[in-house]
């Protein structure tokens, strides 16, 4: 589903170079639930942003669902992101003056679905996160846990193959965090690949596989079988 | 997607009502100011008779002093002498032709309840009506025989007919002008050319006349012109001396239905002047002209330099308003940077966000434009109140309405370009983390 080979990301100013990721290699298979852990500033979020095609990388190779993203322009990356990737953020990132229906509608609008299809998808995903009855409510009228559920519904509405979650429970109390985590596990059981960045070892432990990042490099990872080479790439690659 | 962008645009306007109101009012003020001056400017200079303005020509013959031109650098007089008017009318070489001049006579109504009053009229020939096409409500113009017979006939305006006869069909009735009775042969419908192009020497924006009488009748009655009269040497005493003088006081218009006819008529004028030279008149080199309506309006400086400067200043003010709007839009869009980052993360391309924000700027432009139209209307009302001579041109026509809306949208979109471009440069990842 997602494969990075010797990926690097360098932030440059006229004075200094900062290597946020170096020789970063990872392979996440379809249907996996991977937790990415590491101290602050280790490069977890940079990895997630590059994985979500929100940032460009400086070197190496990167495939999403078999698609080589090197050389893609901004529009192509936006379309790929819209079709295949869903995001869940620590701060929920709902648009405050849109109601739940319209918030979930945002990615579907850019996808070009018909009005009827959009309505069906919104109602289905809001039902799935238990908020179908509150479609016309605004984010401020919901608890943090409910807002995160809306964010999850928004991420799922376009049926993405890959869900990227950046500290999805970071702003929630333990009870709400448990509820969100259970929801993510259920989504994963239904076939969606999930990569979750977290500081919380308990949450990381619930993932199928853990990747530990320090100083922009993968330093520790759970064992995995020999990986298949993505479509269109003939070279056999030894992965992390 | 366009309707979605429109919805978002309206939504965004409601989000920051004060900021939105400032932007809309800024554009409205700029549009109101610029459109007020542009409307007056446009109507001052616009073609008052577009369907035939290229066929109507003022006649200019240079009978002025040998020592100096009528107007520098070498302009011929704006009007003609009686001698030339008579000769040209008798020659009848144009498709239509009319000499004319302004008269002001006292009008003595039969109705004792209406006191006599001074009334503006025009002495002319029957072709005046065919050339300038004032609409008739009742009756017709007088005919050529009545011109030749110096008949006591008149065509009255709609306003005068309303005043004297309550708007009824008054053809056949009498009206007393300067103690002489005239039979009404025609009543005009409302007619007020925006620019009174057929007699610019007596005020480009004056009201149209209350009555029209045959030129020959006015001459027979020895009616001196109430309008502009220019002489480069003193005329001999008496009415006949005045008619035989080189004083110019008659406007002369011809209708020439083709370029060939125009060329023929110019050749005729040149021949005429050359013949007059042999008689010791027309001391200056040949300098005859046949400007059409629009050339005439331009040559007579109907649109003054002051009006042009005023339009320039008002557009400079619009630019100041736009710069202000650019600043406010920039602030507004930068405040939305987290939402822009989020939309990028959710799959919006830069192009889609660019369009979305331009539509939002357009919504502001349309709103500003509509309010600007109201301000324009108020501005034109103020102009009409302050400057009576601009009453007929201080109007808002549909061309100006469309121009105002187009200008406001263009202005707002131009104002929105930089803020929109700036907003689209936002790196989504940064905004998502900092929200």
Mean pLDDT of chain A: 85
Q: What is the strand tally of chain B?
A: 9
Q: Can you say what the CATH homologous superfamily of chain A is?
A: P-loop containing nucleotide triphosphate hydrolases
What is the CATH topology of chain A? Rossmann fold
C-alpha termini separation of chain A: 15 Å
The CATH architecture name of chain A reads: 3-Layer(aba) Sandwich
Distance N to C terminus of chain B: 26 Å
The share of residues in helices of chain B is 40-55%
> Per the principal axes of the C-alpha atoms, what is the gross shape of chain B?
elongated
The ordered H/E elements of chain A are: EEEHEEHEHHHEHEHEE
Q: Based on CA inertia axes, which overall geometry of chain A fits?
A: globular
Low-confidence stretches of chain B: none
Read across the widest sheet of chain A, the strand sequence of neighbours is: 6-7-8-3-9-10
CATH class category label of chain A: Alpha Beta
Overall strand count of chain A: 10
Query: Low-confidence runs of chain A (pLDDT<50, min 5 residues)?
Result: 225-240
Described by strand count, sense and barrel closure, the largest sheet of chain B is: 6 strands, mixed, barrel
Question: What does this entry look like structurally?
Answer:
The complex is a heterodimer of chains A (240) and B (435). Chain A is built from seven helices and ten strands. By secondary structure, chain A is an alpha/beta fold. The longest helix of chain A has 16 residues, at 174-189. The two termini of chain A are 15 Å apart. Chain B is α+β, with helices and mostly antiparallel strands and 435 residues long. Chain B has two domains: 2-47 and 304-434, no CATH class; 56-291, no CATH class. Helix content of chain B is 51%, strand content 12%. Chain B has 15 helices and nine strands. Chain B has helices at residues 2-15, 17-45, 82-91, 127-132, 144-148, 158-165, 215-220, 238-243, 259-278, 293-299, 305-335, 337-345, 350-386, 398-424, 428-434, and strands at residues 56-58, 96-108, 117-124, 136-139, 153-156, 174-177, 180-188, 211-214, 251-255. A six-stranded mixed beta barrel of chain B has the order 2-3-8-5-7-6. The mean pLDDT of chain B is 88. Chain A binds chain B through residues 45, 49, 52, 54-55, 74-75, 78-79, 81-83, 87, 89, 91, 93, 95, 97-98, 106-107, 109-111, 154, 158, and chain B through 1, 4, 11, 14-15, 338-339, 342-352, 427-429, 432-433, 435.
């Amino acid at each position: 589903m997602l494969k990075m080979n010797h990926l690097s990301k360098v932030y440059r100013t006229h004075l200094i170079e900062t290597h946020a990721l170096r020789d970063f290699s990872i392979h996440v298979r379809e249907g996996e639930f991977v937790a990415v852990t590491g101290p602050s500033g280790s490069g977890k979020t940079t990895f997630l942003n590059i994985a979500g095609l929100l940032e460009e990388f400086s070197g190496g190779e990167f495939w999403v669902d078999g698609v080589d993203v090197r050389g893609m322009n901004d529009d192509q990356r936006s379309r790929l992101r819209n079709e295949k990737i869903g995001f869940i953020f620590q701060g929920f990132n709902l648009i405050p003056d849109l109601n739940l229906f319209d918030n979930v509608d945002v990615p579907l609008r850019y996808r070009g679905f018909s009005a009827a299809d959009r309505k069906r998808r919104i109602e289905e995903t809001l039902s799935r996160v238990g908020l179908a009855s509150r479609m016309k409510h605004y984010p401020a009228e919901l608890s943090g846990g409910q807002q995160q559920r809306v964010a999850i519904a928004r991420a799922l509405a376009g049926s993405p193959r890959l869900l990227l979650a950046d500290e999805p429970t970071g702003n929630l109390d333990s009870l709400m965090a448990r509820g969100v985590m259970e929801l993510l596990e259920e989504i994963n059981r239904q076939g969606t690949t999930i990569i979750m960045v977290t500081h919380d070892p308990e949450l990381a432990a619930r993932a199928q596989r853990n990747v530990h990042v320090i100083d922009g490099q993968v330093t520790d990872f759970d064992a995995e079988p020999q990986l298949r080479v993505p479509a269109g790439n003939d070279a056999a690659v030894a992965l992390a | 997607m366009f309707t979605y962008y429109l919805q978002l645009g309206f939504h965004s306007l409601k989000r920051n009502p004060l900021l939105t109101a400032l932007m809309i009012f800024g554009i409205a003020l700029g549009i109101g100011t610029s459109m007020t001056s542009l409307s007056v400017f446009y109507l001052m200079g616009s073609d008052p008779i577009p369907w035939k303005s290229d066929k109507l020509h003022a006649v200019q013959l240079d009978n002025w002093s040998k020592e100096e031109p009528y107007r520098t650098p070498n302009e011929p007089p704006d009007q003609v002498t009686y001698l030339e008017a008579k000769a040209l009318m008798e020659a009848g070489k144009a498709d239509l032709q009319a000499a004319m001049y302004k008269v002001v006579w006292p009008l003595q109504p039969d109705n004792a309840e209406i006191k006599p009053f001074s009334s503006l009229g025009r002495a002319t020939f029957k072709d005046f009506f065919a050339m300038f096409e004032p609409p008739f409500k009742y009756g017709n113009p007088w005919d050529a025989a009545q011109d030749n017979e110096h008949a006591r006939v008149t065509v009255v305006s709609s306003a005068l007919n309303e005043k004297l006869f309550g708007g009824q069909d008054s053809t056949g009735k009498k009206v007393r002008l300067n103690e002489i009775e005239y039979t009404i042969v025609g009543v005009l419908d409302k007619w007020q050319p925006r620019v009174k192009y057929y007699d610019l020497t007596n005020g480009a924006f004056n009201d149209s006349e209350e009555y029209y009488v045959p030129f020959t009748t006015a001459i027979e009655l020895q009616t001196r012109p109430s309008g502009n009269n220019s002489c480069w040497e003193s005329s001999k005493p008496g009415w006949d001396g005045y008619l035989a003088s080189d004083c110019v006081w008659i406007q002369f218009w011809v209708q020439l239905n083709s370029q060939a006819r125009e060329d023929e008529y110019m050749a005729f004028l040149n021949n005429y002047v050359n013949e007059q030279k042999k008689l010791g008149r027309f001391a200056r080199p040949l300098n005859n002209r046949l400007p059409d309506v629009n050339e005439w309006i331009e040559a007579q400086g109907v649109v003054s330099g002051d009006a042009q400067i005023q339009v320039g200043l008002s557009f400079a003010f619009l630019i100041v308003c736009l710069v202000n709007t650019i600043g406010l839009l920039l602030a507004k869009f930068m405040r939305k940077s987290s939402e822009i980052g989020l939309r990028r993360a959710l799959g919006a391309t830069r192009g889609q966000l660019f369009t979305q924000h331009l539509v939002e700027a357009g919504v502001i432009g349309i709103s500003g434009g509509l309010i600007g139209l109201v301000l324009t209307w108020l501005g034109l009302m103020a102009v009409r109140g302050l400057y009576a001579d601009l009453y007929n041109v201080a109007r808002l026509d549909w061309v100006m309405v469309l121009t105002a809306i187009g200008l406001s949208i263009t202005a707002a979109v131009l104002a929105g370009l930089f803020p929109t471009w700036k907003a689209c440069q936002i790196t989504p990842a940064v905004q998502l983390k900092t929200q």
